[in-house]
Write a sequence for this structure.
């Protein structure tokens, strides 16, 4: 008995969810940057994750998840990777334009995709990624170069993103969409002390609360939930290819909301990294499930 073909609406539904999630994340990052002068990147990350964990706790009710000792360890690592990714990404945004920070961070999932394939064609994608990085990382007295410390933070966020993918897939297989809530709660516990020590009483500024809730919804609660839903409905290549355009979403969001104008070389660098990611995704071996997203 053959399986009936999916309707166009059901095929486009997860793609639409993923595009909304990417736009939401980058819009939230733009909004979060407005909080930096008051509580810094550290405090902003803490507020984002604290409010997001409360929201996702109420919506997804993660206490219903059935955790074993092994799955709990995986979820804890997943949550810590998520917290580190968010923290380091916001630290990079202090001195690096949003689109560039996303592109540098994206080297993490790109490395995972290339490692999963390990074919000769992957040297082309590696070369494209290296070209993109060389165009972004400061070289000599290049005026278009970016802050080296900020770039290091973004690359560190990419390492955490790679860990998030590897452990998030395992955790998601065990507990489904509730994994997102569990991960955010653990990330909040991991990052909140850093934000509290850095910002102190400023975290309780009344005017920040609505902004922090908005950031939590746009950057965490909404996109992570949508991504987990899309994750179960898209094949690996489609999912990975769509996620590859996230640096472009970041650059456009920075341009529209933060008035961050990038040079031609920087746009070219972002394009190289996007093409490397798309190529690595399309040529990787068949997998039963797609890679877990993030930012």
């Amino acid at each position: 008995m053959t399986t009936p073909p999916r309707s166009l609406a059901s095929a486009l539904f997860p793609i639409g969810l993923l595009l909304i999630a990417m736009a939401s994340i980058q819009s939230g990052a733009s909004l979060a940057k407005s909080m930096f002068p008051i509580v810094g990147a550290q405090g902003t990350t803490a507020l984002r994750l604290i409010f997001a964990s409360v929201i996702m706790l109420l919506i997804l009710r993660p206490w219903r998840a059935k955790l074993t000792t092994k799955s709990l360890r995986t979820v804890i690592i997943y949550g810590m990777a998520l917290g580190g990714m968010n923290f380091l990404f916001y630290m990079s945004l202090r001195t690096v334009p949003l689109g560039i920070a996303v592109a540098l961070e994206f080297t993490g999932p790109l490395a995972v995709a290339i490692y999963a394939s390990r074919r000769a064609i992957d040297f082309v994608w590696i070369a494209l990624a290296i070209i993109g990085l060389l165009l972004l990382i400061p070289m000599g007295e290049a005026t278009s170069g970016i802050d080296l410390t900020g770039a290091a933070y973004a690359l560190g966020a990419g390492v955490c993103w790679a860990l998030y993918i590897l452990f998030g897939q395992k955790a998601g297989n065990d507990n489904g969409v509730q994994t997102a809530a569990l991960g955010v709660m653990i990330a909040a516990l991991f990052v909140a002390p850093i934000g509290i020590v850095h910002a102190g009483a400023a975290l309780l500024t009344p005017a920040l609360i609505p902004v922090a809730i908005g950031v939590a919804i746009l950057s965490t609660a909404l996109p992570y939930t949508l991504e987990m839903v899309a994750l179960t409905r898209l094949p690996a290549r489609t999912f990975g290819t769509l996620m590859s355009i996230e640096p472009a979403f970041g650059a456009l969001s920075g341009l529209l909301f933060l008035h961050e104008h990038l040079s031609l070389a920087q746009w070219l660098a972002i394009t190289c990294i996007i093409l490397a990611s798309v190529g690595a995704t399309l040529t990787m071996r068949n997998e039963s499930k797609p890679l877990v997203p993030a930012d």
Notes: The chain has one domain: 17-283. Residues 148-175 form the longest helix (28 residues). The radius of gyration is 19 Å.
